[in-house]
Amino acid sequence: MLNNQNSINSAGDIPNDILIVDDEIANLKLLAELLEQRGYKVRPSEKPQLAIGTAMTKPPALILLDVRMPEMDGFEVCKRLNQDERTRDIPIIFISALQEVEDKIRGLEAGGVDFISKPFQEEEVLARVRTHLELRNMQLNLEEIVDKRTAEVIEREERFRATFEQAAVGVAHVSQDGKFLRINRKFCDIVGYTQNEMLELTFQDITHPEDLDADLEYVQQLLAGEIENYSMDKRYHRKDGSIVWVTLTVSMVIDKEHNPKYFVSVINDIS
Asked: What's the pTM value of the predicted model, to 2 decimals?
């Protein structure tokens, strides 16, 4: 068992820095020796207030905390640690000779994750320590993955926004009924409206009447799945009343169930 545990810790899979808080020197020494023999790094403390300070200064991976101590009981120590952002996520295992259900409930309400009974059973201590270190390590890995994925999503969104806004052609997202959902600056320049003004309009509002029927026919073919995209030359009415010729290319974005979400329109000024 000793060699197996050491090989796991040396591989770096499980953090092994454990803070033990117990005012009884004999218990403190017994637990420290037991865990050190299994390759764990142990920080013993017989003073609850000092233990709180060292935990906040250098947060351990796990805390073994005695319940009955004259200076400050373990429940109060646990509450204080859970009130500080530096230590609130550290798993705390209470060690106690008490067997009353009320004490165990009180310990869990204070923020503890488990109990170890006195007198100590070596296999029980090692099993509970190992389990909660593994759970803590999985939690930290999950948080790291979530943070990484979140950063990737933000980066992709920023790249998309930059590409969308700085494109040399007009780009718009359009709902199935023709309402503009998102418009880039170039499209606004082409038709002479501001972005806020465009969001109050539909493509039907600014399309030349002689070109509207053909445009709508293509839209229906897209929605029916008869075509994947279409391109046409058409005219827009600019805000100042003038006409601008463009080449319009439209495709459709669908969801996982293959239902239409919105159209992507690319507008190139050919006037």
From this structure: 0.55
Question: Which among 55, 18, 13, 64 has a CA at the least distance from the CA of 37?
Answer: 18
Q: What is the distance between the alpha carbons of residues 266 and 84, in angstroms, rounded to a whole number?
A: 53
Q: How far apart (Å, rounded) are the C-alpha atoms in residues 16 and 188?
A: 59
Buried b / exposed e across 94-112, counting CB within 10 Å, b at 16+? bbbebeeeebbebbeebbb
Strands (E), 61-179: 62-66, 92-96, 114-117, 170-174
pLDDT of residue 14: 52
**Cα separation of 48 and 50, whole Å?**
5
**Tens-digit pLDDT profile for residues 92-150:** 999 887 666 777 788 888 889 999 888 889 999 999 999 999 998 888 888 889 999 99
19: left (phi over 0), alpha (psi -120 to 50) or beta: beta
Contact yes or no for 61/138 (Cβ under 8 A): no
Q: Interior CA angle at 85 toward 63 and 78, to 5°?
A: 40
